[in-house]
Every structure is written in structure tokens, then in C-alpha cells.
Design goal:
Blueprint lengths: L1 H28 L12 H5 L4 H6 L8 E5 H13 L8 E11 L2 E10 L5 E14 L2 E11 L2 E3 L1 H10 L7 E2 L4 E5 H4 L6 E8 L3 E8 L1 H25 L5 H16 L10 H13 L2 H14 L2 H15 L1
Antiparallel strand pairs: 1-10, 2-3, 3-4, 4-5, 5-6, 5-8, 7-8, 9-10
Helix pairs in contact: 7-8, 7-10, 8-9
Length: 312
């Protein structure tokens, strides 16, 4: 009798566990009334802006450090949700946002799955980012559904079972691998030196390839020296306003004797271009004519090729 009683208790306990454990898991996953965190309320406030208009005046940083902000990414994602560009009739997405951290980002989404009795669910995907030898690695470290951490092996099984395939996705490592050189249409001229994330932005560090940098440095040095000699020669014939612009140009050339393109102050270079346009058309033509006469035909051909490739 003791054996039967013990067996009955054991079976009852197992049955209770089989009922209680899934119930507990469901309750831990169930995520009703998950409001957008206060730190991301700006997403809803600016979500109705047209994407084209939003990016028209957007500051992407400098030419050597392209910055894409967390705020900008979240606004665009939400805008696409508003326009129903991200649409699935079986899933109602309440919000999606990206949370940048040091070399890491989290993607958080709150949604309702209509196929499962209008089940509300909050998903959080935690990923690490590493860049090495022109390869960007995005490793999925953890996925959470509500309060429950989904084991990585479950994620692998789900991806494989559903036939998810991509040349960029390594399911066994849960890793996305992107070859930036392969993806870069200007790889003969510009290379991605680094990709990193700080607390509020994704940074893409770019620079000229070593061969092109040497070629351009030679051309730019010749252009700068010729422009300086020409401006100094005509300086006495310039108006007072033109002399102010000429001084800015001459100071810039003197302050950048090595003309390392990667290290040039972009804002200062833009200022120099504006000052050049303030010179009279006669002065501009004289400088341009002297540069064309000074440059070697092969250098002119190389410069033209570079411009054509970059404008392609």
C-alpha cells in the first residue's frame, strides 16, 4: 500500500508540475500594458514626420565619422510602423526601439500575437558588435520573452525548423557576419576603418584607401601650392572683401602643410570652399587656369577618374 500511495503521490506531483510549470512560464512571458519607456517617448512625438523630410536636414557627423544616432533610428523605425511598411496581419506591433550601449545594442519590441488568443508579448534581443579586418560581427547574446530568457539552443532550433536562411547569418553561432568591403561600392577609393557603438550612436569610421590617399595627397599638394602662389601674386589687386576671403584660404593652406586628407578639418575645408566662391569670377578663373596648367595630365586624368567613380 505504501508503494501504491507513494506512486500515486509521485504521479500527482508530476501532473501538477506539468500543469504549473507551463502556466508559470506563460505568466512570466505574458506582458500586458508594457508602455514605451519614458526615455523613448520622443519616438511617438515625432513619428508622423515624413522620413524624407526628417533626413533632409539631418547631421550625419563628419565625412570620416558617419554618425547614425539612436534617436534617428528609432524615429525612422516608428515612422515605418506608422506607415505600415512593417506589417504582419498575425502580429500587431505596438512599438520597436533600439537601445545603444558600448559596442552593444538591444532591440526591444512589444507586440500582440493574434494567432495565440491576442497574447501580448515583450521581446528583447541583446547583441554584441565587433569589427575586425573589414568584417562586422553582430552576435546575438540573449533573447528574452517577458521575464524569461530563451536558451540559445531553442533559438537555433526555431530558426532551423522554420527554414530561416541567409548568407549573412550563422545560425550555429547566432551571428550575423557582414563583409563591409564587399558591400562598399567605393571600396577602390574609400574603406571602412571601424564600426563602433557608443551610448547614443552608431559610428562608421571611413577613410581613403592607402593608394588613393597617396595619389590624392600629391594632387592636393600641387593644387594647394599653386593656389597659394596665385593668390599671393594677385593679392594686391583684390578688393578688401576678397582679401578677407583670400586670408582664410591662405591660413588654411599654411595650417595644413602635410595635407593628410584623413586628418583635415571638414568644417574648415567647407569654409575655405565658401570663401573661394566669394572671390570674383576673374580671380577664380585665374586660380583654376593656373592649377590646370600646373597639374600633370596623368594627375588630371586620375583626379577625373576619382570624381567620376565617386559620383557614379
Amino acid at each position: 500500500m505504501k508503494f501504491i500511495k507513494g506512486l500515486f503521490v509521485t504521479i500527482t506531483f508530476v501532473v501538477v508540475l506539468l500543469i504549473v510549470i507551463p502556466l508559470v512560464v506563460i505568466l512570466m512571458i505574458y506582458s500586458p500594458n508594457e508602455e514605451l519607456p519614458d526615455d523613448y517617448k520622443y519616438i511617438e512625438e515625432s513619428s508622423m514626420m515624413n522620413v524624407d523630410e526628417y533626413f533632409r536636414d539631418f547631421d550625419f557627423g563628419s565625412l570620416d565619422d558617419i554618425r547614425i544616432g539612436e534617436r534617428e533610428i528609432n524615429t525612422v523605425i516608428h515612422t515605418y510602423l506608422e506607415y505600415e511598411e512593417i506589417d504582419n496581419k498575425d502580429i500587431d506591433i505596438h512599438y520597436i526601439y533600439v537601445d545603444f550601449k558600448e559596442n552593444q545594442f538591444d532591440v526591444v519590441a512589444h507586440l500582440t500575437i493574434s494567432e495565440v488568443m491576442e497574447f501580448p508579448l515583450k521581446i528583447k534581443v541583446i547583441s554584441d558588435v565587433e569589427y575586425s579586418d573589414e568584417i562586422l560581427y553582430v552576435e546575438i547574446k540573449k533573447i528574452k520573452a517577458g521575464l524569461v530568457t530563451i536558451p540559445n539552443w531553442v533559438t537555433r532550433v526555431v530558426l532551423k525548423t522554420n527554414g530561416v536562411k541567409s548568407p549573412y547569418l550563422n545560425i550555429d553561432k547566432l551571428e550575423i557576419v557582414l563583409d563591409t568591403e564587399e558591400m562598399n561600392p567605393y571600396r577602390d577609393f574609400i574603406e571602412v576603418k571601424n564600426v563602433l557603438i557608443d551610448d547614443d550612436s552608431l559610428h562608421v569610421k571611413i577613410g581613403l584607401t592607402e593608394i588613393l590617399n597617396d595619389s590624392i595627397k600629391s594632387i592636393v599638394t600641387t593644387v594647394a601650392e599653386t593656389a597659394k602662389d596665385t593668390i599671393e601674386e594677385m593679392y594686391g589687386r583684390l578688393t578688401d572683401g576678397e582679401k578677407k576671403s583670400a586670408d582664410v584660404i591662405l591660413d588654411f593652406i599654411d595650417d595644413n602643410p602635410n595635407l593628410n586628407v584623413d586628418n583635415l578639418d571638414i568644417e574648415q575645408a567647407k569654409k575655405v570652399s565658401e570663401e573661394f566662391m566669394n572671390l570674383s569670377s576673374e580671380a577664380q578663373d585665374t586660380i583654376i587656369d593656373n592649377i590646370q596648367e600646373t597639374l600633370d595630365p596623368e594627375e588630371m586624368s586620375e583626379l577625373k577618374k576619382i570624381i567620376e567613380e565617386l559620383m557614379r
